[in-house]
Amino acid sequence: APVYPIADVVGAHETVDCAAGRVRYVNGDYAASAPALTAVAGEIAQALPQYASVHRGAGHLSQLTTARYENARAVVAGFVRARADDHVIFTRNTTDGINLLARAVPGDTVVLDVEHHANLLPWQRSGADTKAKPELDRKCRVVTCRPTVAETLEALAAELHRAPAALLAVTGASNVTGEVLPLAKLADIAHDAGARILVDAAQLAPHRAITVAGHGIDYLVFSGHKLYAPFGCGVLVGRGDWLDAAEPYLAGGGATADVPPTDPSTDDAVEVAWRSGPARHEGGTPNVLGAIAIAAACVAIDDLGFERIGVHEHLLRTRLDGALDAIDGVRRLSIWSDSRDRVGIAAFTVAGHSPRAVAEHLNDAHGIGVRDGRFCAHPLLHHLGHPEGAVRVSFGVGTGSDDIDRLTAALADLVART
Ligand code: PMP
Q1: Closest Cα to residue 156, out of 137, 129, 180, 181?
Q2: Sign of CA dihedral 16, 396, 217, 177
Q3: Residue 299, pLDDT above cutoff 90
Q4: Which domains are assigned to the chain?
Q5: Is 376 labeled as catalytic in the residue annotation?
Q6: Which residues contact 345 (CB under 8 A, 6 or more apart)?
Q7: 47, 213, 287, 323: least buried by Cβ within 10 Å?
Q8: What does the pLDDT read at residue 271?
Q9: 56: pLDDT strictly greater than 80
Q10: Taking the complete model, does pTM exceed 0.95, yes or no?
């Protein structure tokens, strides 16, 4: 039976010329950036003619824009079921949110070797800061994944107990294999060892309900552009104490409560009174439209409901896996043999064809866009035994079974011709 898209997204009717003639373009790269929901594009179009700078003035438009911006914060907090006193900080994207948090963590961070670079390099860099400022004393400790999730959780627990750590920073869903980790269990493991947990939800937030308070997640980050909103805005949600104690992420207007005049007779730094709360780390004029768009996406996704999203995705994934497994020489990649859940992502290799050749064939011969390469997760591709990379197809609410069928038929065609 056919499976239809469950929401309207921009670009759904895009057509391209390819060897097969003019065809509807299949977007198989939602995990890199998902197309905006048309409902989100509509909200942006409505907000666009009517804005002024936030937090700056008594003027009508400034007040209106400030109200919309602060409302967006509240909507995001509700979407992820945050605690009442959590900070919701608007960032540029997931990478930005993790870099921000990395400045605030007072100790070691433990990560897995399968993380996206965004959840690895900021920790390694903040560890390197220790050399310049020994008082910071923080390292990044990397744990190698075991063949099962269960054994991997044990290895994480052992590492957290071996030496004190401030944070466990872990992905909610792998950006390469789509495999989902058990968040509540991970939070318990971190807390039992006296650490906190950050979940990189860049790939999880569009696909699964997240309950920050219920799962015991201390910090959560995600990006608007993977959550059916456009580019340039992301979110960091979490506990305020470390964030309020940290140096402001961006020094500048908005981050300060009071700046005294400089004293020309001394080189001493002036005593600036930095704000606490989200403003401390949101120096400069924020991406108001980006925040409004994320909030609109949260509302639209909640309206659709994660139950419906989950069923739709399950149907498409089963169809995709079945068809891929039936093609000679196609091998799907996974990190764990016992992972129970996966979002709408599949990575695979095709024997005798480089990942780039497969991706080019799909685009040039069939008008199907997928991603190939190492997906900003080089250690993971090493871990999987594919340092040369793989092909990744990813989908979401705007995908239907004809997209999946076209992709798998095109792959079967490629294999049959060789
Ligand atoms: N983490 C994961 C799991 C991701 O998939 C991505 C994006 N590929 C990121 C972090 C980084 O997101 P952004 O590029 O929006 O900062």
Answers
A1: 181
A2: negative
A3: yes
A4: 15-30+305-416 (3.90.1150.10), 42-303 (3.40.640.10)
A5: yes
A6: 31, 173, 174, 175, 176, 177, 178, 203, 392, 393, 394
A7: 213
A8: 87
A9: no
A10: yes
Please state the rounded mean pLDDT for residues 345-361. 98
pLDDT band at 305 (very low <50, low <70, confident <90, very high): very high
Partner residues linked to 89 by β-bridges: 236
- Position 48 pLDDT exceeds 90: yes
| Closest C-alpha among 178, 231, 171 to residue 28 | 178
pLDDT of 391: 98
Element at 245 (helix H, strand E): helix 240-245
- Rounded CA separation 172/352 (Å): 33
Among the listed residues 231, 291, 226, the one whose alpha carbon sits nearest the alpha carbon of residue 77: 291
Q: Compute the distance from residue 6 Cα to the ligand 1 centre, in Å.
A: 24
Using the mean position of ligand 1's atoms as its centre, give its distance from the Cα of residue 19 in Å.
33
pLDDT, tens digit (0-9, with 9 covering 90-100), for 116-137: 999 999 999 988 777 777 777 8
Task: Answer yes or no: is pLDDT of 226 > 80.
Answer: yes
Mutational test site, ligand 1, from 116, 174, 235, max ligand atoms within 8 Å of CB: 116
Residues with beta carbon inside 6 Å of ligand 1?
93-95, 116, 118-119, 171, 175, 200, 202-203, 223, 376
The answer to whether the beta carbons of residues 411 and 325 sit under 8 Å apart is no
Q: What is the dihedral of CA 66, 68, 74, 79, to 10 degrees?
A: -150
C-alpha distances out from residue 116 to 70, 170, 356, Å: 30, 10, 20
Nearest C-alpha to atom 12 of ligand 1 is from which residue?
Answer: 94
Tokens 């069939």, residue?
A: 366
| Ramachandran bin of 304, using left for φ above 0, alpha for ψ from -120 to 50, beta for the remaining angles | alpha
**Which residue matches tokens 């495999």?**
179
ipTM, 2 dp: 0.99
Measure 117 CA to ligand 1 centroid, in angstroms. Answer: 8
The H or E element that residue 366 is part of is: helix 355-366
Q: Reply yes or no on whether the pLDDT at 153 is more than 80.
A: yes
- Residue whose token pair is 């433990």: 110
